[in-house]
Design brief:
Distance between the termini: 47 Å
Bound molecules: nicotinamide-adenine-dinucleotide, zinc ion
CATH topology of the largest domain: Rossmann fold
Strand content: 15-25%
Strand order of the largest sheet: 1-2-9-6-5-3-4
Radius of gyration: 20 Å
Mean pLDDT: 94
Oligomer: single chain
CATH class of the largest domain: Alpha Beta
Number of helices: 13
Helix content: 40-55%
Shape: globular
Number of strands: 11
Number of domains: 2
């Protein structure tokens, strides 16, 4: 078992631990019996995770005489809405959850973002324990306190910062995770390595077969390192004023592709394409060497992620339109994350729409 501490400077009282290990979920009820966080627990999950793990967790809580209820909603991004938030809140109110309650967010990033946002506003804010069950949620969405729902206008349009009380990462959840979902998490892990840790990138290259075969020991090492990178960035920049922008590597183009294709492409695929264009631009502007571009793209390709989008599917013009819609453009330039080398990223304010048009057109 590994413990990583998230030390928040702006809100010291809100610092918390991320606990990583195999089989941790089996101890949660015992732990809360010994050291209660609240008088009642709302386990919030989606329909898939309910079936796989939620019902067992509820039974564990009941066996320890903890006051708990399981609240679920249909799996999928569509559920990350104000409508679902209201339904969950109504159910909690009907069940009599008061200010002395705690939310257990059991699931992927959709559950974490939605349940975390419910926790941020329910009775003006109650504690939340994040229990991520996808690789993406383990290394990305459960850390940092950003919680939100989507609207018809934009993803994550309504939300808050609400730091969890604790994050419990049980590696065993990954045993049932579909390969496509594993790739989504791996894409973010590779991004973490590319922006800040050359050795970790090398580790991923060396161990990629074990990771793809779901070797839990190797995955645990990779999850820990990936969490440490995100923690470091979040600690330095809790409210997203500067350093956190590095996490957007591959995401400016990636988000534009996702929204242009109306989310019919996975997030991992979209940011993989975004990272390959960002690396290409880094090389074109004289920062990154060509060999590193190839190394990055080879690793992404190895895990089955694309690094190019066919112009038949999406024209460069359409991607540019979505970037323009999404980003603040000052003097025809936009902020864009580039690489100096593998493990060293920076935010350039000198990328123009013309530059992007150039690389997207190739
Ligand atoms: N808050 C943040 O900082 C942040 C960062 C990155 C992403 N996000 C958000 O995260 C969301 C995406 O998260 P996600 O990729 O985890 O998607 P998800 O929550 O939709 O989970 C993907 C699928 O896997 C299923 N699943 C979950 N755990 C499983 C398990 N152990 N075994 C089998 N199936 C399982 C789910 O039911 C779902 O069908 C997006 O809404 C995104 O905006 C938030
Ligand atoms: Zn992402």
């Amino acid at each position: 078992m590994e413990i990583c501490r998230v030390d928040l400077k702006e809100e010291t009282g809100n610092s918390y631990d991320i606990i990583i290990g195999a089989g941790l979920i089996g101890n949660l009820a015992i732990e809360l019996k010994q050291k209660p966080v609240a008088n009642a627990y709302a386990i919030i999950t989606d329909s898939n995770v309910k079936r796989l793990y939620g019902e067992t967790l509820l039974k564990n809580f009941q066996a320890k005489n903890l006051h708990a209820h399981l609240i679920s909603f249909p799996a999928g991004e569509k559920s990350k809405s104000r409508d679902t938030k209201e339904k969950v809140e109504n159910e909690m109110l009907n069940l009599g959850f008061g200010r002395d309650s705690c939310i257990i967010a059991l699931g992927g990033g959709v559950v974490g973002d939605l349940a975390g946002f419910v926790a941020a506003t329910y009775m003006r804010g109650i504690p939340c324990i994040q229990v991520p069950t996808t690789l993406l949620a383990m290394v990305d969405s459960s850390i940092g306190g950003k919680v939100a729902v989507d609207t018809m206008h934009a993803k994550n349009a309504i939300g808050a910062f609400h730091q969890p009380k604790k994050v419990i990462i049980d590696m065993n959840f990954l045993k049932t995770l579909p390969k496509k979902e594993l790739a989504n998490g791996l894409a973010e892990m590779i991004k973490h390595a590319l922006i800040s840790d050359r050795d970790f990138f090398h580790f991923l290259e060396k161990n990629i077969d074990k990771i793809l075969n779901c070797d839990l020991e190797t995955l645990e090492q990779a999850v820990k390192r990936s969490c440490e990178i995100k923690i470091h960035i979040v600690e330095e920049d809790e409210k997203e004023k500067g350093l956190r922008k590095l996490l957007n590597y591959g995401h400016t183009i990636g988000h534009a592709i996702e929204s242009a294709l109306k989310y019919k492409i996975s997030h991992g695929q979209a940011i993989s394409i975004g990272m390959s264009y960002a690396a290409k631009l880094s090389a074109k502007n004289g920062f990154l060497d060509e060999g590193s571009v190839i190394r990055q793209n080879n690793l992404l390709e190895y895990i089955g992620l694309p690094h190019k989008l066919s112009h038949r599917k999406l024209k460069p013009r359409e991607i540019l339109e979505h970037i323009q819609y999404d980003k603040k453009i000052i003097n025809k330039k936009l902020n864009f994350v580039l690489l100096n080398s593998i493990g060293d990223a920076f935010v350039s304010d000198d990328v123009s729409m013309e530059d992007l048009k150039g690389i997207l057109g190739e």
